[in-house]
Amino acid sequence: MRIAVNGAIIGEKPTGLGVYATNVVKELATRCTEMIVYTSVPVDGVPVVRRIPPLVRPELRLKGHACRLLWTQSVLPWHIMIDCPDVLFNPLPEGPLFGKIPMVTVTHDLIPLRCPDEYPRQQYYFRYLVPAVLHRSRRIIADSTATKEDIQSFYGIDGERIAVVPAGYDRTIFVPEGDRWSLSAIPTSMDGHYQLNGYILYVGNLFPHKNLARLIRAFRSFWHEFRIALVIAGDRDPRFISFLESEIGSAPVFIMNYVSASILPALYRGAELFVLPSLYEGFGLTPLEAMACGTPVVLSRTPPLTELAGDAALYFDPMDEVSIAEALRMVLADSALRSSLREKALRRAQLFSWERTARLVFNELSAAANVE
Hints:
Elements: E1 3-6, H1 16-29, E2 35-39, E3 48-51, H2 61-83, E4 87-90, E5 103-107, H3 111-114, H4 122-136, E6 139-142, H5 145-155, E7 162-164, H6 188-194, E8 198-203, H7 212-220, H8 223-226, E9 228-233, H9 241-248, E10 253-256, H10 264-270, E11 273-276, H11 285-292, E12 297-300, H12 303-309, E13 313-316, H13 321-333, H14 335-349, H15 354-370
Parallel strand pairs: 1-2, 1-4, 2-3, 4-5, 5-6, 6-7, 8-9, 8-11, 9-10, 11-12, 12-13
Helix pairs in contact: 1-15, 7-9, 7-13, 11-14
């Protein structure tokens, strides 16, 4: 089987989509000797890479997205015609609308349809182009059962064509042993002024559906009891940073910029706990990485996150600031609970790996390539 991969989403500063694509491609390369990846950033271990223009990279935001769409519909079909693969793998719902090549397409979430105000342009892509790509695909992969149900609900696609394949994590990097990030990395004036004892960690973007304003307000109500900081590790998106900073007041909340993969494990291990207050998620890669590092996780009670973490997390109502604060306080105040959550998290994380994800993806690629 000759596999082609639409790797245009892989950039120099990968977020969740880029991390998924890179790791699945690496693992697929160990299973398939005939694989071609179309990407602007080389992927280690892949024998054949077709370099494409860097203008498609996701860190270019709107410009990159527009260029990627144009490249996908115009240049990618030309590459496919020349390379003659048996199947095309799209690690996100971006693929050519025309052609005879069988496709397997991954859909991570439909948040732009659930939160259209946050995605004034992208919602139209998900409303019109994504369903066209999915209907054109022989097989569809969803990260979670919740995402599969959304695909069926929003697009009317038969569930028999959709396979649930959870994402994984790098077991060589996200481990409980190793360096730990500390508050000394925060500017001295902040640490010294507050005399802090540790930090709560959030990792992700600053979009409103991540519910960070409620998290900050909940944190403000109890932080002084524990002399603890809240570290928000994500891109300081100019669209949202001012509003979030206005919610901080005098509380020790530190919003970091983009965090590289080399820093993340130490950041997870150094935290007293990890929190994800999202209203919607497609899977939950960051809590999985935190669990693998042995960090207690406190999560929104939403279907993808409960599906991911099971009994290895403490949950709260993401719409209720009191519920958020009580859950965080409970874990911070109870060392036995933290130890229990840590042990459960480590066991739960062992159920996930990029090797398993790639194996299941490979099965879907094989099924698509063999359909006449």
